[in-house]
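[recover] target loaded
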């Protein structure tokens, strides 16, 4: 059987940069607000090709989000773009009080999320952003699996009226979805059917979950993969259905096991359908700088670690 993972790889940030440039040209209300990282986040194309729509805030994230709040109150649609670590932790008070509480139309893009931020250093890594944003009332939280889904989520966010947080990865990932893929807010995507166990994944961990599932198939395990592009609002029905069908769940995220997808899924299961479950994510540890593959192994979030968790949880059925 052919793999669900394409040989083609694309970076989320490149597609984001191309798409936001086009949106800024097509819609007079769209403004791109930068935290002095335009080259890294690939929004420098807006600065070069549509400079009237590009607002440079410098290294001043709190002020940056306050400006976005002000823009939104005038009927404009600001897209705040910086690293996830800075957006979620330096500017959280402004986001909560000035954007989430008044339910303003601000799109917040957390680039360089998770562990794999190249060698930029541990201060630039973010394992807490999903946990932080999903606690905020009125907030929509998105984590795309590939470049196609990035574009589809951006199209949604452009039409949506309310605050949205989307986390992006730095490096290339396999293309999973075709161009005709339709993103639907609050809906999980079944990527692979299975009867023994379900892996519920989000963001960058979805491609690794597919890799783990396909390797386990060769060992005789029937593994379902359920991609959760929307962490908030969460597709509770899909989670319960998966638990009823396979009887055991593994969650996978490039994020802390506390407060992220794993916690969200556990909250649903404990109330609706308690089943054995394991969470694959970064345990109670601070991050560190290292090459990508070393980080994946050391922090136990590689495809091999997902497969290991699957084998362990199946024994609990």
């Amino acid at each position: 059987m052919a793999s669900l993972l394409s040989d083609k790889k694309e970076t989320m940030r490149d597609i984001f940069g191309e798409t936001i440039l086009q949106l800024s040209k097509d819609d007079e209300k769209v403004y791109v607000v930068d935290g002095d990282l335009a080259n890294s986040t690939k929004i420098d194309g807006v600065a070069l090709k549509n400079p009237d729509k590009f607002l440079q805030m410098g290294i001043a994230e709190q002020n940056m989000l306050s400006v976005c709040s002000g823009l939104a109150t005038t009927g404009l649609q600001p897209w705040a773009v910086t690293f996830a670590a800075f957006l979620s932790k330096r500017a959280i008070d402004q986001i909560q009080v000035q954007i989430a509480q008044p339910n303003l139309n601000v799109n917040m893009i957390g680039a360089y999320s998770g562990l794999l931020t190249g060698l930029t250093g541990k201060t630039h890594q973010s394992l807490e952003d999903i946990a932080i944003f999903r606690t905020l009332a009125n907030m929509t939280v998105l984590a795309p699996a590939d470049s196609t889904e990035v574009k589809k989520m951006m199209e949604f966010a452009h039409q949506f009226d309310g605050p949205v947080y989307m986390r992006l990865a730095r490096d290339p990932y396999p293309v999973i979805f075709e161009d005709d893929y339709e993103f639907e807010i609050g809906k999980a995507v079944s990527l692979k059917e299975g009867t023994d166990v379900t892996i519920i994944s989000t963001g960058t961990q979805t491609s690794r979950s597919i890799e783990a599932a396909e390797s386990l198939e060769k060992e005789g395990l029937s593994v379902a993969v359920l991609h959760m592009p929307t962490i908030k609002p969460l597709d509770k029905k899909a989670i319960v259905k998966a638990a009823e069908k396979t009887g055991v769940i593994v969650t996978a995220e490039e994020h802390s096991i506390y407060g992220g997808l794993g916690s969200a899924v556990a909250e649903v299961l404990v109330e609706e359908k308690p089943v054995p479950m394991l969470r694959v994510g970064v345990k109670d540890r601070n991050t560190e700088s290292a090459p990508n593959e070393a980080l994946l192994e050391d922090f136990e979030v590689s495809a091999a670690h997902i497969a290991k968790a699957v084998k362990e949880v199946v024994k609990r059925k």
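[recover] notes: The two ends are 27 Å apart (CA to CA).
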